[in-house]
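Quick one, tokens below. Sequence please?
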């Protein structure tokens, strides 16, 4: 009798890999090069085992069926990394706090909208770091129409980000004074964001490579460590769409290893290695 608890590598065919590639491209715009074949095996075979489906083929049929809609989240989750941390690329948050937010204050106090977007927010350290920087530069931000839109394709990470609860090691990158100001300890010893800061982020599930039901434009957009999954044309198209969503003079922050290849055509000027300003 076949042992349904194991999925041997010999059962993982090239056709299976091609199918995973096709799903990743169609559902998330994620490009999996041929070099990722073994990685896909190790990540996805875990899901095949956990669901006790016995073979990659059975898993791929399930995930593409209506009943497998939730599992699609797990598959995308298995194919991407959600690694993130508080104040990752500290210079971006210094720039936001000292340049961008001060420029927004008088407009927002006069009744206009203030908007910042964390465009692949993972489990939340990025939008919550933005929120702490905003509250430091503009302490009454939460009493005005000031919001941080925080989106990710993955509903599981968006749910975690919305909770705003983190373990002691996760919050090591947050200055002690800010932990005291913006967080409380939970009975289990975790840290939870509390008080007015909780009104700033608005969390949503959003695929960057699909349509965006988003109104208005942003003073700053963080799109960091996500385009590494996309091919060149998907990436360029995304940069153009993000540039279109920036206010004139607004800023785009990208990951430390990323560059906006089409900056000129997108109407962006590079002001630091990973910071771009939208032209007026
Ligand atoms: C490495 S994390 C980056 C988190 C954060 N921006 C940072 O730099 O710390 C990459 C995130 O991109 C998300 N992602 C991957 N493809 C996406 C897509 N097509 N649309 C939106 N988010 C996507 C993943 O779910 C993951 O949470």
């Amino acid at each position: 009798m076949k042992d349904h608890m194991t999925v041997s590598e010999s059962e993982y065919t090239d056709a299976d890999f091609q199918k995973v590639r096709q799903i990743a491209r169609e559902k998330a715009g994620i490009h999996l090069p041929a070099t990722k074949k073994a990685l896909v095996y190790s990540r996805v075979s875990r899901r095949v085992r956990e669901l006790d489906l016995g073979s990659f083929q059975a898993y791929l049929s399930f995930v593409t069926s209506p009943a497998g809609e939730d599992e699609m989240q797990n598959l995308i989750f298995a194919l991407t990394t959600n690694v993130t941390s508080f104040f990752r690329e500290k210079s971006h948050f210094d720039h936001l706090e000292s340049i961008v937010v001060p420029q927004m204050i008088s407009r927002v106090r006069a009744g206009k909208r203030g908007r910042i977007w964390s465009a692949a927010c993972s489990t939340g350290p990025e939008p919550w770091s933005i929120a702490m920087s905003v509250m430091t530069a503009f302490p009454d931000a939460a009493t005005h129409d000031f919001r941080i839109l925080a989106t990710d394709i993955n509903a599981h990470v968006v749910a975690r980000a919305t909770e705003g609860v983190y373990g002691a090691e996760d919050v090591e990158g947050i200055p002690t004074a800010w932990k005291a100001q913006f967080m409380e300890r939970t009975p289990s010893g975790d840290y939870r964001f509390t008080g007015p800061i909780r009104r700033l982020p608005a969390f949503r599930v959003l695929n960057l490579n699909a349509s965006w039901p988003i109104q208005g434009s942003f003073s700053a957009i963080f799109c960091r460590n996500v385009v590494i999954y996309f091919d060149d044309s998907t990436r360029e198209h995304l940069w153009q769409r993000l540039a279109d969503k920036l206010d004139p003079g607004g800023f785009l922050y990208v990951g430390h290893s990323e560059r906006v290849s089409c900056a000129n055509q997108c109407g962006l000027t590079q002001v630091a290695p990973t910071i771009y300003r939208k032209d007026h």
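Residues 90-278 form a domain with the Rossmann fold fold (CATH 3.40.50.150). The chain has ten helices and ten strands.
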